[in-house]
Specification:
The complex is a heterodimer of chains A (479) and B (219). Chain A has 479 residues and is an alpha/beta fold. Chain A contains 24 helices and 10 strands. In chain A, a hairpin with a 4-residue loop joins strand 5 and strand 6. Chain A is globular and about 90 Å long. With 219 residues, chain B is of the alpha/beta class. In chain B, the strands form 3 sheets. In chain B, strands 1-12-7-4-2-3 form a 6-stranded parallel beta sheet, sandwiched between helices. In chain B, strands 8-5-6-9 form a 4-stranded mixed beta sheet. In chain B, strand 10 and strand 11 form a beta hairpin. The longest helix of chain B has 17 residues. The chains are: A alpha/beta (479), B alpha/beta (219). At the A-B interface, helix 3, helix 4, helix 5, strand 1 and helix 9 of A face helix 1, helix 2, helix 6, helix 7 and strand 9 of B. Chain B: This is Lactate utilization protein.
């Protein structure tokens, strides 16, 4: 364990998930939330023909975008630039942070308000800005709660889903000066409204993510319910949008089907309260809106993922979070056990590819391969196949994924080799099964290799007679 | 920085060219076939928007300024932010009667108006370009005469909707009106008052944007 923890920078899913499983409060919070989300989503897609149609369309939009990704990014850059949006490119999160900081320093920014952005979580942007003396305030209510709690989001759509009202009431009382203790959700929400409105009005810069960027028109699309995204992108004099490079779509007409899949899959809403399409900074004669808009396009390993024909499918993702809501692992252990900005099935395939298998090689195993995520993925990402591929990459040295081969074990390789030899030879197979039927039950659970299995599972009971022997008795001949 | 640009694009191009991808055809029939007849559209819009706490006020072309004033007076609203340079704004200024809520024009740049906008405005009124039956959404394109924050910062947003400007889907609205030929600074779909479910999935209205959305249907 000590060695593994060292190699993975303290990221240890197995340990964190065991702890989460003991936490009855946490499990209750997730169980309630996920059951609700699953049943509400099912209502949204009750019309199977419509679901199949819009899902096929949305998938084709994402695949078409990936098929022309370099050209579409160039087109997006050209059209944004023509519209007055300044485009920046970052290979790494360090570079993206540096770009954001240099804009901040140029305008002498002290306070930043942020709309919800997963890419900014990936960049650890808040911590970076604080280090440089800039207050970075999350304004999405869930993100605000998580930030007050000095924690990480536990879900990509509902960041504070791991907490219940009582816990949030205590947090507000403890952290917000003017707060009176209340468990009334409307009053808690109103308190956040009062605190954050002052911040929107005085912030120097607004930061947002991007749900989709349209190459054809140079338009940034954001969906949200609260209005904090519109506030962050309209009130401060400077707006910085950060996006992963896969978020581009070709045409404006590609937006409606993807938004429809996104909002219905994510929160079971036919549409969010606001769909905010931004195509330029404030123009001559306009009375509000930012004077500057910057778009930071982040790679952070995505171009590497794109190079592999199979792994590339990870980049179809529209970040709806439905895969986590339906995942038997995520719904039990919650988001924090993954210790990653993206938890759940999509996180389990994305994080190892972005940060490498050495650090994240455990995550593809955080999966029962039940296929629930694949069934509901609105853009049909073959998540389980990619999960299997990454398990294999983790134990076979290669170039496709960072850290490939880092989890290779001689003992495991020998076991598989032995297994395959045994199954390839009828004689060896008969010998092995006869041996296990005789001696299997006598083998102590503490045997090396067997121990790895029996640590967390009951030891299987071996039948005293093999299937072949039973079949022979019934008169079925060996082939 | 252009170094990163070229590196990223170069890597993407090499990756794609080594393994080109043929996407399936995009068949928009599923959106094209979503249709509602005549009165059904407005009924559906009302039903969907009311489900997320939107209020409706029915009126006519002749009476809407008076009806809006009567509504706001009954609500105890102190003032109404409006765009004086629009046709609707001209009607409001000429037909507004004394003693009602104060009409406040959005006349200056936000930099000089911010304090009043955030602290002293109860309601704002804007026009819309229509509404969408599929999702129950208003289409709002802010303009220099009707700036972006009018539909966001005041606690109540009143939106004028012409009863004949209705679409089946978002896709229909954008393709029929050729939005791709020229997008405005900001285009919005608004489908209710601001809301959140971030505290234990309990819906609460009015978190950052308007607490109330009142659609004024003008026949």
């Amino acid at each position: 364990m000590g060695e593994t923890a060292l190699k993975t920078n303290g990221v240890n899913f197995a340990k964190a998930s065991s702890a989460a499983l003991q936490d009855q409060q946490l499990r209750g919070n997730f169980r309630r939330a996920m059951d609700g989300l699953m049943s509400k989503r099912a209502v949204q897609f009750a019309d199977t023909a419509e679901w199949n149609g819009v899902r096929a369309l949305g998938t084709s939009v994402r695949l078409r975008a990936l098929s022309k990704l370099p050209e579409l990014l160039e087109k997006l850059e050209a059209n944004c630039t023509r519209n007055g949006i300044q485009v920046h490119w970052a290979s790494t999160t360090d570079e993206a942070n540096a770009i954001v900081l240099s804009i901040m320093q140029r305008v002498n920014a002290k306070l930043v308000v942020k709309g919800k952005s997963m890419v900014s979580e990936e960049m650890h942007l808040n911590a970076f800005l604080e280090k440089h003396g800039i207050e970075s305030l999350e304004s999405d209510l869930g993100e605000y709660i998580v930030q007050l709690d000095e924690a990480m989001p536990s879900h990509i759509i509902m960041p504070a889903i791991h907490m219940n009202t009582k816990q949030i009431a205590h947090l507000f009382k403890q952290k917000i000066k003017e707060a009176e203790y209340t468990e009334d959700v409307a009053q808690l929400t109103d308190l956040a409204r009062r605190v954050l409105r002052k911040k929107f009005a005085t912030a120097d810069v607004g930061i947002s993510g991007v749900n989709m960027a349209v190459a054809e028109t140079g338009t940034l699309c954001l969906v949200e319910n609260e209005g904090n995204g519109r506030m962050s992108t309209t009130v401060p004099p400077v707006h910085i949008a950060v996006m992963g490079l896969e978020k581009v779509v070709e045409k404006l007409e590609d937006v409606p089907p993807v938004i429809s899949l996104l909002t219905r899959s994510a929160t079971a809403q036919p549409i969010t309260t606001y769909v905010n399409m931004i195509s330029s900074p404030r123009k001559e004669g306009e009375k509000d809106g930012p004077n500057e808009i910057h778009l930071v396009i982040l790679d952070n390993g995505r171009s590497g993922i794109y190079a592999d024909e199979e792994l590339r499918n990870t980049l179809r993702c529209i970040r709806c979070g439905a895969c986590m809501n339906h995942c038997p692992v995520y719904t039990k252990v919650g988001g924090h056990a993954y210790q990653a900005p993206y938890p759940g099935p999509i996180g389990s395939i994305l994080m190892p590819q972005v940060e490498g298998l050495e650090k994240r090689g455990e995550l593809p195993h955080a999966c029962t391969m039940c296929n629930a995520c694949v069934e509901i993925c609105p853009v049909k990402i073959p998540i389980v196949e990619i999960m299997g591929r990454l398990r294999s990459e983790a134990v076979h040295p290669g170039d496709a994924v960072k850290g490939a081969g880092s989890h290779a074990s001689k003992a495991e390789a020998m076991v598989w080799k032995g297994w395959s030899m045994t199954y390839a030879s009828p004689l060896a197979y008969q010998f092995a099964t006869a041996l296990l039927a005789k001696l299997g039950n006598a083998a102590p659970t503490s045997l090396p290799l067997l121990k790895e299995w029996t640590n967390v599972r009951s030891k299987p009971r071996f039948a005293t007679r093999t299937l072949h022997a039973l079949a022979r008795e019934k008169g079925i001949p060996d082939v | 920085m252009s170094e990163s640009r070229n590196a990223i694009l170069g890597k993407l191009r090499a990756g794609r060219d080594a393994h080109p991808l043929t996407p399936p055809e995009s068949d928009f029939a599923v959106l094209r076939n979503k249709r509602w007849e005549g009165a059904e559209r407005l009924e559906r819009i009302k039903r969907m928007m009311e489900a997320v706490h939107t209020e409706f006020l029915e009126t006519t072309e002749a009476d809407w300024p008076a009806d809006v004033q009567a509504f706001l007076t009954a609500q105890g609203t102190r003032n109404l932010l409006f765009g004086p340079a629009t046709g609707a704004g001209a009607r409001l200024s000429s037909e507004w009667t004394a003693g009602g809520p104060e009409l406040v024009p959005y006349a200056d740049r936000v930099e000089t108006f911010k304090e009043r906008l955030f602290d002293g405005i109860d309601a704002g009124i804007t026009t819309t370009l229509g509404a969408i039956a599929d999702t129950g959404s208003l289409i709002v394109w802010p303009t220099p005469e009707e700036p972006r924050l009018m539909s966001l910062v005041p606690h109540m947003h009143l939106a004028l909707l012409r009863a004949d400007a209705l679409y089946d889907t978002f896709w229909q609205a954008m393709t029929e009106n050729r939005w791709a030929d020229g997008m405005p600074t900001n285009a919005l779909l608004i489908s209710g008052p601001s809301k959140t479910a971030d505290i234990e999935q309990t819906l609460a209205y009015g978190v950052h944007g308007p607490k109330r959305l009142v659609v004024v249907i003008v026949r």
